[in-house]
């Protein structure tokens, strides 16, 4: 019992150490669990929401639409739980200019259901539900009416379907399937959240960049009632067993990938061929029907002409007969005059005159020529016959041409099998959370190392103070384990209390803060905070093990001695010279107190290492957090001011490219420009490890912006984009070549650094490119270009034709002339503008209102508006926690330093030192050690910052580590400020030292 009371008394006396260990554990556990818990809560709530709304696991799109046969084939795929055929249509309406929207049919099979936020779901034809973004932009409300106009050439079948294949073209060759059609007079009955896009329209401004040329401004949801058409724009699938997995886990991706591989394997190829054959059959049927209809019309026209000609011939023959009869009568009269009796008898019985064909034809021509009316009638008949013959020949020639051109006019049908990663809202949320979680996995390591160091310092001093007491207990027969339990339980209790408070902060405080920031960027219904018993327990256990290990080490170091040795005071450390003493010119010029300070600093190496190491670690954390903040803050400026030299990028449909260039040229704002072709595609690295890829075994895919440059203007690309070759370095660094040393040629493509870093691609690698038409080709990477935002891949016109036209040539080798294969449509323009940044931004906005412009991006606007709010919030949190850790570390080290030197401080007071002089004597050592820790921590923070930015592997982003001088200053000043703050707590302790009682101590 006395042992326990003494132990409790000892614990109460060491309350400062207890608080120090508890605070360090609290901060460490909070960092370890807080960021993890915040991301996990967001992941889980989003996964529950996706399951509740039936977000598709797989989506199938086609450049020619999907038929009932396609849907039936998808239902037969092994592993598919549900298939939902979807219809949509692009419409336009007037809302402060021309705006576009996608009319989306609400599926009846429970897939991709919108989440009702206000009002009710539409049920009847003409009713729609809109998103909150539309309500905010339009000022409309539930009950408002809206009239829309269908796009004349709507192409909703694919995000990549802007290459010339659209639904209207399909309908012209397919007489059985009709494109979807929606009502045009609409009434808003509800406000919904699109389950495919969780972006918060009322939150922080999000990252904006040009992604795709096939997006609309809004999405309207309509019921099946009133929707016509049997051609589907998409098919969405749910995979068996996928709902049981978390959508953000690798197990979910593997489950879905098995189904997508099956679809890509056989179903896709077979149905692409079948669908194209359907279109060919429908086209041939139209040609046959057109020929039959033309033959019928021509036959009717020929019959009419023949009837008119027959009537004309009868009239002429009657005149011929009349003239022949008259001539015969005249001849008979003349004969009768010579022989009256005989002639009268003969004239009475004379037959009608008979004419031979030659005479009759001569008479016909003579009669027609003599009559203007008959001449005109004959000419009209001949002209009608001639025109009919010409129409027959022309129609026959047209139909033969159509037959010959049918196969070439109907392109190869392509399917696009996509998973949730292709959804912009899903991938953005996942990449944001993954990046933050990667920070949460790295920072606790530093906290744990600092916690172990501080615990070792504190507990070693605590055991050393009880040296004689330990010897007494051991001499009285207490086991060493029993004696050590006093300190182990002390450390354990401090860890458990600190860890428990850390769990509260980690599973409630920090997640609540992160989720507030997240909800400003995304809408996540049903979000709630949850506790993870396993992770929380392991978090505390990790720090308990570390602290107890340090405590055990401190106990072992003392208790391995005999009780007799422990009962005697510890022998003073043997005197020794420090290195500075050997430098006589310097040492001789140092005052007495300065020499004492130098000896105290360098002779006690353990205290030196602990203090400098602890301060350096905290300073490094602050620098690291500020480095990430500086890196993210400068991304937009570096990309849109330094790398992109152009001021404006304008993109149009292929059909509007000429009108777009004319419009921009007529405005007179452009000082120089470069016509290019921009397509949205993919860059893939196969994980074969054959040496062609950037890294052995590397794999992955990245969405890219494929930029084709005209052959005659390859040298002009360097004037619009800063071309600098880069090579990967260590710890977040990269070697950047000389500006202008990189040239685009016909030997390969230039890949953006953001994509190359994510996929491990380097110069000389072989990659697989997918262009806007879905055609794939293997390309050589000639160089990697410095690029931070977006994933641009630059390719010359000649190399583009070599890559992609040769692919089509396999199936349509004789259908393309060399002239056709070289004819790329330059659907985009990179331009430099005159005027201020504001005027350039306004000009880009005005261009988007033009019907020929699909997208206009101002680099000035992008540089000013680029933000990464979530990363900024996490960095602020990390810097705050690192500052708190620095404060606790300095407080622990200062108190340990004072407790070790109580006798020394008492001696100084006996010698006549005033309190202020004692403060200066002690605090000067701590300040020097702090300065040494800061000097070491500043470059260490830059090093750790580089390592962490390598972990922030986000789509279309490369974090080029940037640490501004001000950040170093802030980190150093903050650490020194914490040191000065600690002095305010330490000075009263120095004042309370009693020289008499301290010098009477056993020590």
What would you say this structure looks like, in words?
It is a single chain. The chain has 1003 residues and is of the alpha+beta class. Among the domains are: 45-151 and 176-281 and 413-421, no CATH class; 580-636 and 867-1002, no CATH class; 637-686 and 701-804 and 825-865, no CATH class. It is 57% helix and 14% strand. The chain contains 29 helices and 23 strands. α2 (15-53) packs antiparallel against α13, α6 (250-338) packs antiparallel against α7 (340-348) and α10 (424-465) packs parallel to α13 (533-559). It is elongated. Mean pLDDT is 80; it is low at 153-175, 204-214, 342-350, 687-699 and 806-822. Residues 141-182, 379-400, 683-702 are annotated as: Disordered. It is a multi-pass membrane protein. It comes from Bifidobacterium adolescentis. One of its GO terms (cellular component) is plasma membrane.
Entry summary:
With 1003 residues, the protein is an alpha+beta fold. 57% of the residues lie in helices and 14% in strands. It is found in: Cell membrane.
Q: What is the rounded Rg?
A: 44 Å
Mean pLDDT: 80
* Biggest sheet: strand arrangement: 14-15-21-18-20-19
Q: Could you give a short account of the major beta sheet?
A: 6 strands, mixed, barrel
Total DSSP E strands: 23
Please tally the helical runs, counting DSSP H or I stretches of 4 or more residues.
Answer: 29
How widely separated are the two ends?
A: 28 Å
